[in-house]
Amino acid sequence: MTRFSSAHAIAEAIRSGKKSAVSIIQETLNTLRTQDHGIQSVTHLFADEALLQAQKIDAMRQAGQTLPPLAGVPFGVKDLFDIAGHVTTAGSIVLRNMPPAQKDATIVQRLKAAGAIPVATLNMDEFAYGFATVNAHYGTTHNPHDLARMAGGSSGGSAAAVAAGFLPFALGSDTNGSIRIPASLCGVWGIKPTFGRLPRAGAYPFSASLDVVGSFASSLDDLITTFYVMDGSTPAPEPAADTLRVSKLGGWFASNLAPELVAALDRVCASLQTTSTVELPEVASARAASFLITAAEGGNLHLPRLRKQAEEYDPATRDRLIAGALLPSSTYLQAQRFRNWFRTKIHELFQKTDVLIAPAVMGEAPLLDAPTIMVDGKPVSARANLGLFTQPLSLPGLPVLCLPLKNTGSLPLGLQLVAAPGQEAALFSVARALKQSGLAGCVPLPEKEMA
């Protein structure tokens, strides 16, 4: 498998007999074993199970049977998805003595039924609490575009593995930006579907009222195909992009942007003939409400275990979870009341527009040894503030596609395309138009990294 081989290309090579599924999986496993040392995207390989599944696919082809659509395509899962026979650790050592999972997570089951083969678990922030994939137990995942920089989080291992060309797609989860932030910083496609659309069964929870499972891919077609496989539905017709009303989010979402991102946004709006700019009300409060709900629900989930095993948690994770558990119930209820109001306001916007455009992150990936970003002219913690543009849009449960921008003259930058619940097809249509115009696409690694 070469870098950026698509899932479609791999499946076609196996279907036509140009490649065997076993050879694809062997090559993928070898790549992960020999090339991931500097990136640290992988936490565990499923070599035996993957090769066994590949052998079954090759036997099906040799018997003349029709192969499923993703036959032999390797993929990785964020280390919070259940894989039968393995302990789900959720990026922590706290769960290492738990019994192995009895069955695969539901979306993993659906992908395997379509022929795809899970080959690895991928690194993440402990218990998905973070935007950096700096993990005290399993190491820091580095950005394949510049190993001195963050990959983003909490699904950083998944984004990095796709960006490095190790895997054509990978699974992640998104509570406050954990798919969108690493997709943006690593220059790959990412999708946070409508809240509740994809089943979360078998994915270790963080914040029950915000968690969404989704994926990363090296091509838009792969992102769309795997989305509908995980959804268990027939692909919906995409509306023509030129019939959709597209607006840019201004105000909060127009501040603190790198000049390269401002220029890229202008090119995108010009290509889509978008002249409308709209603003959301009380965005700062929406971000705060999202943060408080996450902290309270995460803290409540972990409190019984913290009482017994607090010393086993990463101190940074532990302290935030304890703080969340100590929030008064009135604060949580007030945040949820605000959430209902904010959801109503954003739904009013979708009566006048179909797709919103917003930046995913304000600029390129921060340095690992200087983890700050500039907000309102001051350096602030990157780990605490990379979600500036993603957290407010988590609150209403909307589908968001993170689109990698091309030819920005910088390290990877990404945009969020946002639609009303259930309208993923509209996002795919706009993304396809931008890809065809040459403005969007998976960002290749620089030659020195490719060597």
TrEMBL record:
It comes from the Bacteria. Keywords: Ligase. GO terms for molecular function: asparaginyl-tRNA synthase (glutamine-hydrolyzing) activity; glutaminyl-tRNA synthase (glutamine-hydrolyzing) activity. SUPFAM superfamilies: Amidase signature (AS) enzymes. It holds the Pfam family Amidase. Its EC number is 6.3.5.6, 6.3.5.7. Gene3D superfamilies: Amidase signature (AS) domain. Residues 24-427 form the Amidase domain. It is an enzyme of class 6 (ligase). This is Asparaginyl-tRNA synthase (Glutamine-hydrolyzing).
